[in-house]
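Work Package 4 report. The design task specified in the project plan requires that, given a folded chain encoded as C-alpha cells, an amino acid be chosen for each position. We show below one input record used in the internal validation round.
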C-alpha cells in the first residue's frame, strides 16, 4: 500500500470512528469495498510483476551461465587437443609416441581399462593394419585379437600372402584404433576419438607404410575420413588414400563372424590392396 492509499485509509478510518462513515449504508459499503478491492488488485499486480521480473532475470542469468560454461568447456577442449597434438608431434619414433600415449591420463575411457594395448608386429613393415579397439580379453592378453577373432584375422593375413603376428618373420604391423576399450562420454566433454586422432596420425607418419588397412569404420572415423572410401569403386571393391597411402576398409572381425555375408565385402576390398602389394613385391 503506497503513501496516498495509506492516507485515504486513515481518513476513512477516522470518518468511521467519528460516525460520518456508516458501514451499514450501501453507498459507504461500496466505497469501502472498492477501496480494498483496488488495493488488493494493485498488490496482486505488483506481486505478479515482481515474479515475472524475477523469472526473466533468472532466465537471463541461466543463459549467461550456460554460455560461460560452454565457452569454458570449448577452451578446455581446445587446450586438450593442443596438448595431444604437441605430444604427438614431439614423438620422434614409435617408442616415444607410445610412451606419450601411455603417459597421457586424460582419456575418458581409461577408467574402465586394465592396460593399454599398443602396436604389435614389425614396425618396419610396408603393410599397416589399424584394428578395432580392444576387448577386455584382448587387453588382458595384450593381443589385437583373441580366440575366434584371432583365427579369422590370421586367415585374412595369410590370404593376402603376408605373415601373421605369431611368426618370427612377421611382415605386418598392427595398431589399435584406440589402445583402450572405448567408452562413450556421458557428458559434453571432448570425445576420446578426437583426442586419439593426432596420436593415430603420427603412428601412420612414423611407420610410413606402403599400404593401409582399416578394420571396421572406427579408424576412418577417428581420422575424420568417414565414408571416404565410397567415392572410388573398382571391381566391386572400394579403395581410397590417406596421406597418399593406398587404403582399404574391411569389416570388423566380430561383425564378419556374426554375419558371414560381410566377408564378401571384405574380400572385394582386400583384392584391390593385394594387387598393389603384389606389384610392389615384383619390383
Amino acid at each position: 500500500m503506497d503513501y496516498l492509499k495509506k492516507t485515504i485509509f486513515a481518513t476513512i478510518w477516522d470518518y468511521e470512528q467519528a460516525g460520518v462513515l456508516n458501514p451499514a449504508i450501501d453507498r459507504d459499503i461500496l466505497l469501502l469495498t472498492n477501496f480494498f478491492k483496488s488495493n488488493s488488485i494493485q498488490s496482486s499486480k505488483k506481486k505478479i510483476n515482481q515474479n515475472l521480473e524475477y523469472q526473466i532475470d533468472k532466465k537471463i542469468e541461466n543463459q549467461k551461465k550456460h554460455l560461460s560454461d560452454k565457452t569454458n568447456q570449448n577452451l578446455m577442449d581446445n587446450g586438450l587437443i593442443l596438448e595431444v597434438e604437441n605430444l604427438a608431434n614431439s614423438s620422434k619414433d614409435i617408442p616415444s609416441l607410445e610412451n606419450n600415449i601411455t603417459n597421457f591420463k586424460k582419456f575418458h575411457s581409461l577408467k574402465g581399462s586394465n592396460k593399454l594395448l599398443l602396436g604389435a608386429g614389425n614396425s618396419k613393415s610396408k603393410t599397416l593394419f589399424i584394428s578395432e579397439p580392444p576387448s577386455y580379453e584382448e587387453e588382458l592378453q595384450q593381443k589385437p585379437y583373441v580366440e575366434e577373432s584371432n583365427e579369422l584375422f590370421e586367415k585374412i593375413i595369410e590370404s593376402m600372402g603376408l605373415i601373421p603376428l605369431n611368426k618370427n618373420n612377421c611382415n605386418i604391423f598392427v595398431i589399435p584404433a584406440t589402445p583402450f576399450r572405448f567408452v562413450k562420454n556421458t557428458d559434453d566433454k571432448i570425445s576420446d576419438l578426437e583426442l586419439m586422432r593426432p596420436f593415430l596420425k603420427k603412428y601412420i607418419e612414423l611407420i610410413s607404410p606402403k599400404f593401409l588397412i582399416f578394420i571396421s569404420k572406427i579408424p576412418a572415423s577417428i581420422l575424420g575420413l568417414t565414408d571416404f572410401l565410397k567415392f572410388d569403386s573398382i571391381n566391386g571393391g572400394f579403395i581410397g588414400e590417406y596421406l597418399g597411402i593406398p587404403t582399404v576398409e574391411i569389416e570388423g572381425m566380430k561383425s564378419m563372424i556374426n554375419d558371414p555375408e560381410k566377408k564378401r565385402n571384405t574380400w572385394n576390398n582386400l583384392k584391390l590392396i593385394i594387387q598393389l602389394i603384389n606389384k610392389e613385391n615384383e619390383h
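The two ends are 100 Å apart (CA to CA). Validation will be extended to a larger panel in the next phase.
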